[in-house]
Amino acid sequence: MAKNLLIVESPSKANTLKKYLGKDFDVKASVGHIRDLPPKQLGIDVDHDFEPTYSTIRGKGKIIKQLKDAAKSAEMVYLGTDPDREGEAIAWHIAEILNGRKKDIVRVLFHEITKSGVQTGLSNPHEINANLVDAQQARRILDRLVGYQVSPFLWRTLYRGLSAGRVQSVALRIIVEREREIEAFVPEEYWSLHATLSSDNSGDFVADLYKIQGKDPEIGSEEEVNDIVANIKKQSFSVDSVEKKTISKNPYPPYTTSTLQQDAAHKLGFSPKRTMALAQQLYEGVNVFGDSVGLITYMRTDSTRLANEALAGSRSAIQEWAGEKYTPNNPRQFSNKKSQVQDAHEAIRPTQWELPPEKLKGQIPKDLWKLYSLIWYRLLGSQMTPAKYARTTIDISAGDDYLFRCSGSILKFDGYLKAYTAMPNGYEAEKDSTVPEHLTEGETLTLEELEPKQHFTNPPAHYNESSLIKELDNQGIGRPSTYSQIITTLYDRDYVRREKKTLIPTELGYTVNDVLVKYFPKIFNTKFTAQMEEELDKIEEGKDQWVDVVKEFYKPFKKSLDAVQSKSKDIRESLQEDSGEKCEKCGREMVIKWGRNGKFLACSGYPECKNTKPVGEEEAPEETDEICDKCGSPMVIKSGRYGKFLACSNYPKCKNTKPIPLGVKCPEDGGDLVQRQSRRGKVFYGCANYPDCKFASWDKPVPVDCPKCEAHFLVEKRTKAKGEFLRCLNCKSEFPMELAQDEEVEGAT
Predict the structure, then answer these.
(1) Can 519 be counted among the known catalytic residues?
(2) Spatial separation of the C-alpha atoms in residues 211 and 218, rounded to whole Å
(3) Backbone dihedral region of 409: left (phi > 0), alpha (psi from -120 to 50 degrees) or beta?
(4) What is the pTM (predicted TM-score) of this model?
(5) To 5 degrees, how large is the angle CA 361–CA 364–CA 367?
């Protein structure tokens, strides 16, 4: 019987930890949170210091019983959940349900799942950090107060099912305001001027107009540039100065959560959600040569700090991989520039210096390998020597008023760029600039050509996932652990869509944002939200009490909420638009309203006249290769109240319709699997040959073969603990969602 019980939150983390612990340890997983605020009520007593009421999360009763049973026979219980606020809160909730054993329960932290990391954690047990728990609880309560009290306001003004979030709505505001800035942008004309010059000692080269009478040139029209060209052509050209120097370029710091998500999006095309799921696997343990190994440190961090052992390990790895000249005399530490950095963890870095990416290629899944390589080479690069460039700058005078400049750099030593080049889709070397080598000061030059070029200023760029994360990080909105969920929620609520990798607000997103900003201007505000993050940090540091922080937030929030409660009907009516159409049933004006499926036309005479119809023309049917089994005509795809469906093109003579096949064959009779609805409107998936075949699944089938048993499809699953994943109905094996995405990419190629 094991003397000690170690409880973590993840089964995969538990499996990796077992190999470092002897028979004296039993390792169990809570599978995430075990308790939370109740799902169908506020769960907060606002009149009594915001006292929360916690309830067991549905489906966690069995896990709680297992933890209690295991704790009864253990002499000591170690709580090894993730080393952050969320992990501390999970540990506290576990300790609460094991309340009969409080004296024997201690908290341990594993910043890396390695032998030394586990030994360090177990040898430094301590009490649960109440400040961290309070900070997490304050965030949860603030988010619940906003979500449960503002969302119903949106239901009354727009339609039921919408949601508002304290941080998510501010992220939406940032995206909407950028789009409106782009829409309002008016391009401005400007001109640049380029001279082609030559001398007796060099061939032709190009120099750009750099100064006019010592000031930056501001040329706004063709007329202006023509006058300048005419004046310059009268001048004589000579070399004013030649400056040659060696410049050094230093590497970037190792990754934080924010910069990892940005780089993974830019270089690998990974969404923030996918990046964090892969990083979690690398931290908790990946099967390497038949053994579960944690390959990186904890992946939720805003610090660029590195431990001494990491500095020593990286320097040895650099010497072995690149050689002595790439290893600086002293290790490099990076300061955290932002004032609100928590610095609870190191930067994201490798933990197994004997396992460079080259050894793991083909040994671990492709996307895990790509992300690991990115982390590995970013860390190595941060500790390598600077890159060296030979830079030449030549200033050329044209009379007394005009100064042209020609400059360029040549890479002399790649330094840390060697690591960046080794990254997947990594660094591309800059092309060396062509600069004349033999010019001397005072040398006379010949003007061969003077070329003016017209330009127009560009609007700000649309946000993409990477640049939005950077903006949230810069403004102090959210924290490393929240960026992925913020973006996912905006997609899920249909407030934002992804269009050619950019984030574009939907019409619903614009409307929700405008309502929230107009009626809750102080709450859904970037500065206020960033200030709240700082207040949460103060709770964590023990400088503030969580109840005081929540009270300070709730007072102006409640005032705004009370002020708009009676205005819902007026606000709803103000969002209606005139359509210019008459109701064909009663002759009154039709107005455009919001409903669950978007905008629709409704009679202004409601409730006497309940006539409604879609806005605008119906979407043109999409042709298919399907043939109607009733009349032999081609089938087309149409859109209806419940989404798209197949319909006979011979309508109304033939009214045959059927669901669109999912591209998956029924495992029982080989028929097409299709989406269907139960009597209560719940979506499920069944065989098109029903009622002859009664196969059905609540989970959506996807056309991906099971890698283990070769069944011809998997199903999509989603749980709060595991997120989204794929499962085989035949052998019950589970796989990451990326398996389906990889299949789509391969099919496209």
Answers:
(1) no
(2) 9
(3) beta
(4) 0.76
(5) 85
C-alpha–C-alpha distance, residues 683 and 675, integer Å: 7
pLDDT, one tens digit per residue, over 599-655 is 889 999 888 999 988 876 455 677 787 888 888 888 888 866 556 788 898 888 888
What does residue 303 show for φ and ψ, rounded to 5 degrees? -105, 150
Query: What is the widest separation between alpha-carbon atoms in the chain?
Result: 97
Q: How far apart are CA 730 and CA 708, in angstroms?
A: 10
Give the DSSP H/E element, type plus range, for residue 490: helix 483-492
Residue 681 lies in a domain: no
Q: Is the pLDDT of residue 340 over 80?
A: no
CA atoms of 330 and 383, how far apart (whole Å): 9
Query: Encoding tokens for residue 372?
Result: 């690991």
Residues 6+ apart with CB under 8 A from 394: 207, 239, 241, 242, 243, 405, 406, 407, 435, 436, 439
**Around 577, how many Cα atoms within 13 Å sit in the side-chain half-sphere?**
8
Q: Check whether residue 9 and residue 117 sit in a common domain.
A: yes
- Rg over alpha carbons for the chain, rounded to the nearest Å, is 32
**Is 59 part of a structural domain of the chain?**
yes
Per-residue pLDDT band for 744 (boundaries 50, 70, 90) equals very low
Examine the domain organization and report whether 559 and 581 are in the same domain: no
CA torsion, points 688, 692, 695, 696, in degrees to nearest 10? 60
Residue 565 is inside which H or E element, if any? helix 546-565
Determine contact, residues 386/415, Cβ cutoff 8 Å. Answer: yes
Q: What is the DSSP letter of 268?
A: I
Specify the CATH number for the domain of residue 29: 3.40.50.140
* Domain residue limits at 91: 4-128
Residue type, 386: P
DSSP tag of 299: S
- Of the residues 298, 416, 554, 685, only one is catalytic, namely 298
User: Can you tell me the distance from the alpha carbon of 112 to that of 89, in angstroms, rounded to the nearest whole number?
Assistant: 20
Measured CA to CA in angstroms, residue 111 lies from 108, 235, 283, 338 at distances of 10, 67, 9, 22
pLDDT of 318 over the 90 cut = yes
